[in-house]
Amino acid sequence: SSNIVIAIDGPAGAGKSTIARNLAISLNLKYLDTGAMYRAIALYVLHKDIDPQDKDCVKSVLKKVNLDIKTKSNGNNLVFLNNQEITDEIRQPEVSKAVSYIAENFAVREFLVEMQRKIGRDGAVLDGRDIGTRIFPNADFKFYLTASIEERTQRRLCDLLKEGYNTTYNEVKQELLRRDEIDQNRTYSPLRMAEDAILLDTTNMTQKEVLSKLLERVEGHE
Ligand code: C5P
C-alpha cells in the first residue's frame, strides 16, 4: 500500500482527522490534515490584524507565509508557520471563526493546492473538503464522512471542553452550521461529495467501527 492516495472529505466535526490519522497509521501512509493549512493562514492573518474577508489584503501577505508540516511518530501533524510551531494555536475558536473566510479566497486555495499535491503524491491519507473533488480527483479511494449535526456538535463540544475552552452546545452548533454553509456555498472548490466517493454516516458508529469499515474497503480492493 506504499503509494496509494486516500481522500477523506466531509463537513466540520465529522471525525475526519482522527479517522484519517488512524487509517494512515494502519496502512503505513503519511497523513495530511489540509484544514490545518487553512487554519495556519487564518492565524497569520489574525496576528497581523487583517480582516479575513479582505481578499486582496489576504492575498498580498501570502508571500510572507512559510508553512511546514511535520509528522510525529503518533501520526499527528505538527504545523509550523515561519519556523514557529503553531499546532495548538490553530485550534482556537477565533481561528475556527475566521478560517472559512480564508478558505473562500481563490489566492489562498491556489497557494495550497500545489503544496498538498506534492506532499500527497507518493502516497498519503488526506483529509479536508476538496481532496476528492479537486486536490486528488484520481485518488485510489475517496470517502465522505458525515454525521448528524447533533452528533457533530456533541463531539466537537467534548473536544473543546477537554482542551480547556469555555463554550456551550449551542455556540458550537451555530459555529459548525455557519462554517458548513460557507464551505458548501463558496465559488472555488466548495465542499461536495465526489461522485465516486463512498458515503459513510458515522452518527451511530464508534471510531473503531469507522476505521474498520474504511480498512475493509481499502484492503479488500488492493
Ligand atoms: O478540517 P478543519 O475543520 O480543520 O478545516 C478548517 C476549515 O478549512 C474548513 O472549515 C474549510 O473552510 C477549510 N478547508 C477547506 N478545504 C480543505 C480543508 C479545510 O476549505 N481541504
UniProtKB/TrEMBL annotation:
Record protein name field: Cytidylate kinase
Family, as annotated: Belongs to the cytidylate kinase family. Type 1 subfamily.
Signal peptide start and end residues: none
Listed Pfam families: Cytidylate_kin
Keywords for the protein's UniProt record, in alphabetical order: ATP-binding, Cytoplasm, Kinase, Nucleotide-binding, Transferase
GO terms classed as biological process: nucleobase-containing small molecule interconversion; pyrimidine nucleotide metabolic process
Reactions performed catalytically: dCMP + ATP = dCDP + ADP; CMP + ATP = CDP + ADP
Keyword match Iron: no
Subcellular location: Cytoplasm
Spans through the membrane: none
EC number: 2.7.4.25
